[in-house]
Amino acid sequence: xxxxxxxxxxxxxxxxxxxxxxxxxxxxxxxxxxxxxxxxxxxxxxxxxxxxxxxxxxxxxxxxxxxxxxxxxxxxxxxxxxxxxxxxxxxxxxxxxxxxxxxxxxxxxxxxxxxxxxxxxxxxxxxxxxxxxxxxxxxxxxxxxxxxxxxxxxxxxxxxxxxxxxxxxxxxxxxxxxxxxxxxxxxxxxxxxxxxxxxxxxxxxxxxxxxxxxxxxxxxxxxxxxxxxxxxxxxxxxxxxxxxxxxxxxxxxxxxxxxxxxxxxxxxxxxxxxxxxxxxxxxxxxx
Length: 287
Ligand code: AMP
Ligand code: MN
Ligand code: MN
Ligand code: MN
Hints:
CATH topology of the largest domain: TIM Barrel
Strand content: 15-25%
Shape: globular
Distance between the termini: 24 Å
CATH superfamily of the largest domain: Metal-dependent hydrolases
Bound molecules: adenosine monophosphate, manganese (II) ion
Structural class: alpha/beta
Radius of gyration: 18 Å
């Protein structure tokens, strides 16, 4: 059985490691198949590809796209995408503009709340595809909060002075971009939205309807009971099952690389039709 991690971040979005560093860390941690899934961008894939090829690591081109469903923000992971597909890139370009505008507003709101600083410029230093995590780290660096979660709690969550809602695209559109690019759309970390069972089922109905093909059954933050619940739902909705840590770098993540549990028996893995190296001939870093 190969060691899969199909949800990770780099400095192309809010991860702390460059795509190259991430590939090296993954190999060291025993990961054999990795997807780089930065928020709303494929900007890290070229460098990741270069390093992964050198290391004999199997890289799956991916993305994690922010989407709106009803009043919720959801994340949809696209796997095996053709990164240069125009429909996908036009969609991502719109989100990039939305992120830039939002970041300027976050910066202005922090100033209006009495935190003087060029927060936009400082936040930009923490990676591309700027979002709240970049501001959280800027606020920590400036001593306004002790940790990133603290910065979110005090400044960046809904109701707090630096909160600006994202203007993402509707779920159906986002799934369409991924499909257009030949990818598989996977609902990221379903247990993190804290939806009641009934709403989660409504979401899965819609997700399947619009062309979604999988859900993350194993995610960095999922508890054993949530994994069992999601495995049952995957089966019920004929969704494939994915596995991803949501790694953001040392000290920024739910768990370290290479330590994910395997899928419960009965799940059909998202990779069932991928062409992959076989477990015993795979992924040795060549000198
Ligand atoms: P954004 O897309 O800019 O709204 O930022 C969302 C990202 O912020 C998520 O993907 C997480 O990486 C991170 N995040 C959200 N909430 C928290 C939190 N409470 N503590 C730390 N990171 C968080
Ligand atoms: Mn993130
Ligand atoms: Mn996410
Ligand atoms: Mn993520």
